[in-house]
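Hi X.,

You mentioned you wanted examples for the new student's onboarding notes, showing what a folding record looks like when two proteins sit in one file. Here is a clean example. The first protein comes first, with its sequence line followed by its structure tokens.
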Amino acid sequence: MIETRLLTAISFEQDTLCLIVDGKKLVLPLEKVSEKLKNASESQRNFFKLSPSGYGIHWPLIDEDLGVDSLIKLHEQL
């Protein structure tokens, strides 16, 4: 069975991506997450779409897609 993630918040604080996933806050440095997001403007970063299943995040203005599971794994490695 595929596990569904509950992504309830996405924000940016300085050079970090902050997520609330399954009730837990993840703070990830943009340099580890995505070069595109790191170099994007505030308006480009803040225009995103969540997949209905909670598996991914898409930033159409910079053509970037990130999987929530990958971001969780990255957070565990930091």
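Then the second protein repeats the pattern, sequence line and then tokens:
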Amino acid sequence: MEESKNSVSNATADGAAAPKAAKSKHIVREYAESIIIAVLLALVIRTFIVQAFKIPSGSMEDTLAIGDHILVNKFIYGSKIPFTDTRFLKLRDPRRGDVIVFEYPEDPSKDFIKRVIGTPGDTVEVKDKKVYVNGTVYNNPHEVHKESEVIPKEANPRDNKDAVKVPPNSYFVMGDNRDRSYDSRFWGFVSNDKIKGMAFIKYWSWDKDKFRVRFGSIGKLID
């Protein structure tokens, strides 16, 4: 009888251990699947829908300040299929006045942010800091000039640039901080395939000089 009791006791212990191990494996698998799904979803959103960027320079002041964190709409101009220049589900083309993020033409590893000034077919010219589009002064309410000096075009094209026609599928872009922006006046046009999307909102802003949050900028739309 004693041997019989021991046999029953051992069988019960082994039977309890097996379901517990199976349950642990099931929980681990559930966590792993949840993490994988979350990562894939994040990649899809970042690739096709919206992407976050941080402003590192003052070329877009006072529209965007150093330390602003922004979201960029990636589907408005058509989401790009990875590793190709093909776009799909395009809502519209970039328009004059849009603030866009794009691959810097001279170094694609860097992302630039500027405002569209000239669209395909437009003629853009700069005279004494004033921008002309198709022969008419283009007054953008966001542009600022922080230097009074007017540089002759023989020195550099910042304040005076001969008229140029924007090629097909390309854009002429400038920073809102006109005197301190390295843009199409210097290096030319942005091709459509280099555009990542349109900046539309600030979701965070940090002033590192004053070591404070710019609460007034959080949630502000970019126009």
